[in-house]
UniProtKB/TrEMBL annotation:
Lineage top rank: taxon: Eukaryota
Keyword Signal belongs to the record: yes
Keywords: Signal
Leader peptide range in chain numbering: 1-44
Organism lineage string: Eukaryota, Sar, Alveolata, Dinophyceae, Gonyaulacales
Organism annotation: Alexandrium catenella
Keyword Signal attributed: yes
UniProt name for this protein: EF-hand domain-containing protein
Length: 155
């Protein structure tokens, strides 16, 4: 017979569930969603900004604002090198130079196909060329940034 009797086991609490590996993320997502529904008055705006910042810290993109700014600066430098006439647009031949520098392209048919795809997605006229100001936004894509890093070095 034992002189010490252990207390009965309690079912796990909700706090323990929150501390589980996926529990905190789920909780933060629910909290963020609930707080985003607040009115957008002066206090609601402050709360919303805070929630957005917290959400981005926990679940945001791997390339933050500074990373993107650096990528845009490098992308602009690369596009300027390829823009032979300096008009701010990359026509098909200038695109070929840009694409070759960035991706070490595998041939003119690939370059032409990618030029058409990018023109279509950025809603530009292929005869005028791709606007460098719009083209920089493709560097939000991880693969494009990776190629840019290979060309210039790590961000």
């Amino acid at each position: 017979e034992f002189w010490f009797e252990a207390p009965p086991r309690q079912p796990p609490s909700r706090a323990a569930a929150l501390l589980a590996p996926g529990g905190m993320r789920s909780f933060l997502r629910c909290l963020a969603a609930a707080l985003l529904l607040l009115p957008s008055g002066a206090q609601g705006g402050v709360i919303e900004d805070t929630v957005v910042k917290v959400y981005n810290m926990a679940f945001g993109p791997e390339c933050g604002k500074k990373c993107l700014e650096k990528a845009y600066t490098r992308a602009n430098a690369l596009m300027t090198e390829s823009d032979a006439d300096g008009d701010g647009f990359l026509v098909n031949t200038e695109w070929a130079d840009f694409f070759d520098r960035l991706f070490q392209s595998s041939g003119p048919e690939v370059v032409s196909r990618e030029f058409e795809k990018v023109c279509k997605s950025l809603e530009c006229d292929p005869k005028v060329g791709i606007d460098k100001a719009k083209l920089k936004f493709v560097f939000q894509n991880k693969q494009w940034r990776h190629r840019l890093n290979m060309h210039f070095g790590d961000l």
